[in-house]
Design brief:
The complex is a heterotrimer of chains A (276), B (319) and C (454). Chain A has 276 residues and is mainly α. Chain A contains 14 helices and no strands. Chain A has two domains: 35 residues; 207 residues, MetI-like (MetI-like fold, Orthogonal Bundle). In chain A, helix 9 crosses helix 10. The N terminus of chain A is likely disordered. Chain C contains 16 helices and twelve strands. The two termini of chain C are 49 Å apart. Classes of the chains: A mainly alpha (276), B mainly alpha (319), C alpha+beta (454). Chains A and B meet through helix 2, helix 4, helix 5, helix 6 and helix 7 of A and helix 1, helix 3, helix 4, helix 5 and helix 6 of B.
Chain lengths: 276, 319, 454
């Protein structure tokens, strides 16, 4: 009896507080969904729900801007970047965690410093530099960014790999395996949760990135983030809130779905990176 | 040298060289990438910051330190910086403490906590672009839900994206992500020594005392690290300020209300509204230096505890 | 014969290397180029292939693209949307579009002074489509000689234009308010207009159902235009300084402040949810300040209002009748364009050839060449009245000093418009506003001077 009761402790106060907070944080999603299905003529009405649920808003939102094309481009860039980063960050994290070399500590400080310097600060100068080389309007920046790895991911991998006993490589070394083979055959399989976390974080970051596509891509071949931010205006430059709401709702769906599915691995990834 | 020590020394040296080569081999993508994508651009920005380049002319007139002098003495810089700091002072503590408190509540076996955890964390997953646009719809003057609520109290429609109201709207957008840290804090709370918690309870310590003496020290490295991270991301906030602006089809930074002219918004406008690429670059360099100094200060104040979380090498060395 | 002339192959190469080195050093050292766009080159022949045009979305319709390609089989058009950031990037990277759509009034000194716009004199000289005598004087805005806009070589051509301080009014609203209609050919004064607006504005219970005046948008161009009717000017000779404190210009500032306070229109303190057009169509405004192009816009969007809308000459603040254009939108060719010959063929077709005819016939703007003036519509009372007023106004078109090589209008207006809003809210005097504007705009211009290495 006592054991069962303590399994499901009742914390009515905490439950209520959490309920209130959750409702407050969830309401904007609900408002978004409602607004997204409101006809334009009812936007200024004084009711909570529209009298006509205009499902036509959804195709309208998808036609107002080249939605599918932008979504495809967003997906392409996000997958390329996240995939490249997932591997390269692991490589670099492993290097920092398990290998020794001259100047390693200084380089690690540089890595930390890079986590600190905000992305936008290097974006404009990168844009200046890339425009001199005609790389604007191409997808190469993301390939380069992916290959370079993401500092936060490198950091997580590093923490993770550092927690393994030194003996792990020695067994492989005795078998005659080179360092790279050791890495891929032993450490990568162990890194599944972290790889998922890294992929999810990178995917989100790219899917939601507004500044880089605005600077580096042309307006007719840009990502969804840049497209929905500027596209839902009529020919007089007036905002179309209902279409924007519908478009935004569809836009955040992949991110939410991805998180819901990958939740467990995502959480485990953080835990396993050895937060002590 | 054919003595045994000589051979051993040489093979050790060679092994170390191989080690070094392997190390650099593994980190080469990052090294090269950083050179191309961070070092070169910042170096180029540094060069441009000494000129008065307008972004399109084929020549860049040299002005030396004039841009930096102007950055440091211009009242606009300080006004932008103070607005940014105001946002930081409000949002960073709120997010850190809010996430921590929520994580503590979620750490208990409350009913439905997985659902709560998901809902509370969700806004932090939503991309900044979408968050800004979602709230733009909600705060819309004619059709937004906020004004609808006010209308039931007989208040006329308020414009939330112009004037000083825009700052409030910006804060709301950012505080929507108050649950951003709960995943990390939940993981950190798991690492608190259960035995110590039990001991504290046996000693009759209340929840607050337990927190201060058992939980807090255990999670302080992560807490410090999260503080630094949140500080940095909040300092650079820019997208919500830009997207909340009441603009037309040509998304120009000129319509961002004065209240929301944060530092990075100002930088953006120097480049793309006033075509002052040289001055804007100087603003960026100054900003980088400020951030580095701030971070160093926070780390120094936070003590060496953070190094243990960050650098297991150090721990080993101490052993 | 290799006599001992002292000039051997080696000295030639050395000399060439020396010149190249000097040129390189000069570029690195940041020598500013001549203030004009450089000497005219020769007109290049059109290259078979693509012509890239940066234009506003929807400007060049698919039908027009097809028509051009049909009559110019060696050329294909590639259209990209207007985007200042992208344009800058392309110009900076050295691979710009072949044509960029811009306001000739605003950009000519800016781009020509930087040597980025192609001197089009040789192209015009050998054109068989455009006759020099047929070019309307509005195209003078594309002329720059290094110090004055309106004189010198041509750097672009207007596609269509209007005299933008003219205005339209709702005859019904005027008669309802008991006002006599203005004489369409004798310009009303701005003070009379303000008085009329007071009578036209209908308010009840704190909400206004109709504003008497058009949307007030104090920007450099309208201020300069109004000052010109008063015999003053804002941008001083040399185009590097502004002076808002002269009595002629202060009168303009005072008028704007009075009009804003009178609450007879949308203004910087009362932003319009849209612009003049839709507000007029919805009956929220009784007047609009737009040029002749509004004729075509109204006929196609709200033809039912033709019966109650009339056109009128540009108002005056002083006694000088000046009616400039604020846009004169057209096309210019960047110096690094890949196909300038092909680009100019498009200009010929779109601004002065078959491509310009349809626009002229719809009355959605004045054409760029004289011979198309006769195509403007006068099929009913409304279009005839507008055309008559417009024809009488043509002589008063003048190239005003609205632009400077040291800043684009957007940069100057970025400080002008907020200053007005602040001054109107604080109830500042015109003199105080003038001082604020002087400091702010002169700072922008000073920065621009440094950018040009002066």
């Amino acid at each position: 009896m006592t054991a069962r009761a303590s399994r499901r402790e009742h914390h009515p106060v905490k439950f209520t507080l959490l309920l209130v907070v959750s409702i407050a944080l969830f309401l904007p999603f609900a408002a978004l969904a409602i607004k997204g299905l409101t006809p334009g003529s009812e936007l200024a009405n004084n009711s909570w729900f529209p009298t006509n649920w205009r499902w036509q808003n959804i195709p309208d939102a998808l036609n107002q801007i080249p939605y599918v094309r932008f979504a495809a481009i967003s997906t392409f860039i996000a997958v390329v970047y996240s995939g490249l980063t997932m591997i390269s960050s692991a490589l670099v994290g492993y290097g920092f965690a398990r290998l020794r070399g001259p100047g390693k500590r200084a380089l690690f400080a540089v890595l930390i410093a890079m986590m600190i310097v905000p992305q936008i600060v290097t974006l404009i100068p990168t844009y200046l530099l890339f425009s001199q080389f005609g790389l604007i309007g191409t997808y190469w920046p993301w390939v380069l960014w992916g290959t370079a790895g993401a500092p936060y991911a490198i950091f997580l991998y590093r923490q993770f790999y550092a927690s393994f006993p030194k003996e792990l490589e020695e067994a492989a070394r005795l078998d005659g395996a080179g360092r790279l083979r050791t890495f891929f055959s032993i450490f990568i399989p162990l890194s599944r949760p972290l790889m998922v976390t890294s992929f999810v974080i990178s995917f989100n970051a790219t899917w939601g990135d507004y500044v880089a596509p605005t600077l580096f891509l042309n307006a007719d071949n840009t990502t969804l983030a840049a497209g929905i931010a500027t596209g839902y205006y009529n020919s007089h430059g007036i905002l179309l809130p209902n279409l924007l709401a519908a478009g935004s709702f569809i836009y955040i769906l992949p991110v939410v779905v991805l998180f819901l599915f990958a939740q467990r691995s995502y959480v485990r990834g953080f835990v396993s990176s050895g937060i002590k | 040298m054919t003595t045994l020590t000589g051979i051993r020394r040489r093979s050790i040296r060679r092994a170390r060289q191989r080690d070094g080569l392997a190390f650099y081999g593994f980190i080469s993508p990052w090294l090269l990438g950083t050179a191309i994508l961070t070092v070169f651009p910042l170096g180029y920005a540094l060069y441009v910051s000494f000129t008065a380049w307008d972004g399109i002319s084929p020549y860049k007139p040299w002005v030396g330190l004039a841009n930096y002098a102007e950055v440091l003495t211009s009242p606009d810089t300080w006004s932008a910086l103070s607005k940014t700091l105001l946002v930081v002072v409000i949002v960073v503590p709120a997010t850190i403490i809010g996430s921590l408190v929520l994580a503590i509540w979620l750490n208990e076996k409350v009913r439905g906590r997985v659902v709560f955890r998901t809902i509370i964390f969700l806004p932090a997953i939503v991309p900044a672009v979408a968050a800004a646009l979602i709230w733009k719809v909600i705060f819309d003057k004619d059709s937004g839900s906020v004004n609808r609520i006010l209308a039931t109290f007989g208040i006329h429609p308020v414009s939330w994206v112009t004037g000083d109201n825009a700052f409030i709207t910006l804060l709301v957008v950012m505080l929507w992500g108050i649950g951003a840290g709960i995943i990390i804090y939940l993981a950190a709370l798991q690492t608190v020594d259960v035995e110590q918690l039990e001991a504290a309870k046996v000693d009759g310590a209340g929840p607050l005392t337990t927190f201060r003496h058992v939980t807090l020290p255990a999670i302080s490295p992560i807490l410090l690290f999260q503080t630094v991270l949140t500080l940095i991301t909040t300092l650079q906030v820019f997208i919500p300020a830009l997207l909340l602006a009441p603009v037309g089809v040509t998304q120009t930074v000129s319509s961002v209300p004065v209240a929301n002219r944060l530092y990075m918004v100002d930088v953006w406008s120097q480049f793309f509204q006033y075509s002052r690429y040289g001055y804007g670059s100087a603003m960026i360099i100054v900003f980088v230096i400020v951030i580095l100094i701030l971070t160093a200060v926070v780390f120094r104040v936070g003590g060496r505890s953070v190094y243990y979380a960050v650098d297991p090498d150090q721990r080993e060395d101490r052993r | 014969m290799t006599q001992d002339t002292g000039v051997t192959r080696r000295t030639l190469i050395a000399g060439a290397a020396g010149i190249a080195a000097f040129a390189g050093v000069a570029t690195l050292a940041g020598c500013a180029p001549a203030a004009s766009g450089g000497a005219a080159g020769t007109a290049k022949k059109a290259k078979a292939g693509t012509v890239t045009i940066m234009a506003s979305p929807g400007e060049i319709s698919d039908q027009q693209k097809a028509d051009f390609e049909a009559s110019h089989p060696h050329l294909k058009l590639s259209l990209i949307n207007s985007d200042p950031t992208r344009a800058n990037a392309m110009l900076a990277a050295g691979n710009p579009p072949d044509l960029i759509e811009n306001s000739g009034i605003d950009v000519t000194p800016y781009y020509a002074a930087r040597g980025i716009a192609t001197n089009l004199d040789p192209y015009f000289a050998q054109s068989t489509v455009i006759k020099e005598s047929d070019i309307l004087p509005i195209n003078d805005v594309w002329k720059w000689d290094g110090s004055t806009q309106g004189k010198g070589s041509r750097y672009g051509m207007t596609k269509d234009w209007s005299q933008d301080s003219m205005w339209w009014y709702d005859t019904q609203a005027w008669s309802d308010a008991g006002l006599t209609e203005p004489d369409p050919n004798k310009p009303i004064t701005y003070d009379e207009l303000l008085d009329a607006a007071r009578k036209l504005t209908k308010t009840s219970n704190g909400t206004t159902s109709q504003y008497g005046l058009y949307t007030l948008l104090p920007a450099m161009d309208i201020i300069e235009a109004m000052a010109a009717t008063n015999g003053g000017r804002v941008l001083q000779p040399g185009l590097a300084k502004v002076d808002f404190s002269s009595p002629e210009v202060k009168a303009v500032l005072k008028w704007f402040l009075d009009a804003t306070k009178a609450n007879v229109s949308y203004s910087p303190t009362n932003p319009s949810p849209d612009w003049d057009g839709p507000e007029y169509f919805a009956g929220k405004q009784a007047t609009v300040q737009q040029g002749y192009w509004f004729n075509g816009y109204l006929s196609s969007t709200a033809p039912q209002l033709q019966a109650t809308t009339k056109f009128a000459a540009a108002p005056m603040l002083g006694s000088k009748r000046v009616s400039p254009s604020f846009g004169a939108v057209g096309y210019w060719i960047p110096t690094k364009a890949a196909n300038p010959g092909g680009a100019f063929e498009f200009i010929e077709w779109y601004c002065a050839g078959a491509g310009a005819k349809a626009r002229a016939e719809s009355g959605s703007g004045l054409p760029s060449i004289k011979s198309y003036l006769s195509l403007l519509p006068s099929n009913n009372a409304f279009t005839s009245q507008s055309l008559a007023v417009q024809k009488a106004e043509l002589d008063y078109q003048q190239v005003l000093p609205l632009a400077t090589p040291y800043a684009l209008a957007s940069a100057m207006n970025a400080v002008v418009t907020p200053a007005f809003a602040a001054a109107a809210t604080a109830g500042d005097s015109a003199g105080k506003l003038a001082d604020t504007l002087n400091t702010a705009v002169n700072a922008v211009l000073a920065n621009g001077k440094v950018q040009l290495g002066k």
